[in-house]
Each structure stands twice: as C-alpha cells, then as structure tokens.
Amino acid sequence: MMDEDELITQCVKGNPKAQHLLFENYAPKMMSVALRYMKNTQEAEDVLQDGFVKIFNKLTDYLGGGSFEGWIRRIIVNSCLDQIRKNKKFQKDIEMDSVDFKLENNAHIEEGLMADDLMILIHKMPDGYKVVFNLFAIEGYSHSEIAEMLGVSENTSKSQYSRAKDYMRKQLQTINYARN
Predict the structure, then answer these.
(1) Of 15, 23, 68, 150, which has the maximum CB count within 10 A?
(2) What average pLDDT does this structure show over 112-139?
C-alpha cells in the first residue's frame, strides 16, 4: 500500500493503478459531498467525474501544505458550484439589508434522526438555501467567502442561510409532530 505522498507522486507520473487507487480512496466521500449540492445521483456522478478530471490535471498544483482530502473536497465543491452556475439553477434571492441572524436556542435535532434523514431534508431544500447551507454549515466557509464564490452580497448569503435554517427547523418540527 502506497502512502499518500507516494500515491500523489505516482498519479502525477500518470500511473493508472495509482490514479485508480486515488479515485477509489476518495470517490465515496466526495460523492457524498456532490450529492449535497446536486439535484440527483446522475448529476452528482457527473460532477464527481468532472471533479476528478480536474484533480488529476491539477495534481502538480497541490503543494502539500494542508490536508490532501481538503484540497480534493474544495475542487469537488467548486465543480458542483460550476455545474449549478452552468445550469443556471442557482437563483439569487432579493438582497436583504436587514435580517435577524440569531439562532433560536430551542432549535435541536431529535436523537433518533439519522444522517440519511438530514441528507433528505438538505436535498429537498430550494437550491439557493441548499448551496449556502452546505457551504456555511457543512464546509465551513464564511459568509464573505460564500458571497465571493457565488457572486452575491454577504447579506444575501446570510439571508439564504437564515432561510435554510428556518426551512430545516420547520421540516424537523413536522417530523417530530408526525412521530408523536
């Protein structure tokens, strides 16, 4: 088994076995990332494939300064955003200058709620909410970074995130009501 540095070196040299191994090691995790952004499995698979083509083409740009998986994840996320822009599915909401961004303290997720349930809820979100929610809550980007990535204002990013939280809260309340 090759270590990560050797795997990268072999991939840069064009070794097909190393490229296959890299894909096999990271594709499942990156597929879950793509599924959070895309409408369906086929779109996620297309983005994953495009993303890995970019990864192999840009592998010489990876300088080893940070997590290799994080570097791959950033390329996959950017590939998802590129696809969303290409399909013109991301719709900018009306910019809001004053939005209350405070979280309610009573917002919680029932212990029995599984990760798959959350993925379903995220997948059902409107595109604008879903993209910002994923970038902020899951990927850890700041609202200023999201605004730059999506070409919107920071307030738009914040309002989309606020609306995404409200959407999730209402969906979770519906689930909790149905279970009781």
Answers:
(1) 150
(2) 78
